From TrEMBL:
Keywords: NADP, Oxidoreductase
Pfam families in alphabetical order: adh_short (PF00106)
Source species taxonomy: Eukaryota, Fungi, Dikarya, Basidiomycota, Agaricomycotina
Family that this chain belongs to: Belongs to the short-chain dehydrogenases/reductases (SDR) family.
Protein name: NAD(P)-binding protein
Length: 270
């Protein structure tokens, strides 16, 4: 049976201080199932502002680049305070431009920070939350891992090459985890946004130009929530959906088949 986010009792949204994460957090809060929504990010004043709006919205300050031990502590504390947690949305992310025609200008520290923020921190946090989700699975309860990738995970944007690579990594990871958890109640629901209204591009100075063509946050949120409620494993929205049809259709099934085939081979070789 396919279950959707409506089954969740308590959702953690990382990157909830602005843009997509904030909007999804508020939409989740408004579900008739009335989940508790924990909002995470670095900007405390924005967490406080959100938490003030409802008793069911709780703020937790977190920097996802703080390192493995800090994230281990964050997961432990979060689960001690919210043992009902059964869903995590990974919306924290940054986007940087790099021009490899000028390698002397490629800031490798910034590049590594983008990789840590958009990929390594997420796979680390997923690993750290999994023992809890596997326990829920033993109790017959569903749980949800919800990575936010990007249309650029499907067709890269060469002006943000490292960003697109981190999103391709998240996309690939989502498909693999979906296959690995196929026999469990752990659902991987990957949200694949197009260009959407947010603060992501503010530091590049491109927001005024992009705001003429981006998808309004309200429209995006409605579409993404529809996919999350249905429990769709891939939720491409807007032009991401058009690219998904051309380049991605059938990939998940193919990955699952190859996984099952390999498992069978391993069994026969034992
Ligand atoms: N907007 C788009 O066009 C678009 C398209 C495709 C995919 N996406 C993806 O959607 C996700 C949300 O982005 P957005 O567009 O909503 O951008 P945004 O408005 O800039 O939001 C980014 C969020 O990430 C958080 N964040 C960044 N670095 C963090 C860190 N080190 N630790 C904890 N939180 C951190 C920020 O919170 P703090 O600064 O308070 O920490 C903020 O809440 C990202 O993964 C992005 O790549 C966006």
């Amino acid at each position: 049976m396919v279950v959707g986010i409506i089954e969740s009792r308590c959702v953690l949204v990382l990157g909830a201080t602005s843009g997509i994460g904030r909007s999804l957090a508020l939409a989740l809060h408004d579900l008739p199932s009335k989940p508790t929504v924990i909002v995470g990010g670095r900007r405390q004043e924005r967490l406080d502002e959100l938490a003030k709006t409802s008793d069911r919205i709780k703020g937790v300050q977190v920097d996802v680049t703080a390192g493995r031990e800090a994230l281990r502590g964050f997961v432990k504390d979060t689960l001690a305070t919210y043992p009902d947690l059964d869903a995590v949305i990974f919306s924290s992310g940054i986007q940087l431009e790099f021009d490899f025609n000028h390698p002397e200008q490629v800031d490798l520290d910034a590049l590594e920070n983008e990789l840590t923020t958009n990929y390594t921190s997420i796979v680390t946090l997923i690993t750290l939350f999994l023992p809890h989700f596997l326990k829920l699975n033993e109790q017959g309860r569903p749980s949800f891992i919800i990575p936010v990738s990007s249309a650029l995970s499907i067709v890269p944007a060469p002006w943000v090459p490292n960003y697109a690579a981190t999103k391709a990594a998240i996309h690939s990871l989502s498909i693999s985890l979906g296959a690995q958890f196929r026999e469990t109640n752990i659902r991987v629901l990957e949200v694949i946004p197009p260009l959407v209204e947010s603060e992501l591009h503010d530091h590049q100075g491109t927001t005024p130009a992009l705001s003429r063509v981006w998808m309004p946050l309200s429209e995006f949120t409605e579409k993404a929530m529809a996919g999350l409620v249905k429990g769709n494993s891939q939720i491409p929205v807007g032009f991401a959906a058009a690219n998904w049809e051309v380049f991605e259709k059938g990939k998940e099934e193919k990955a699952l088949q190859s996984y099952q085939h390999t498992l069978q081979l391993h069994k026969e070789l034992k």
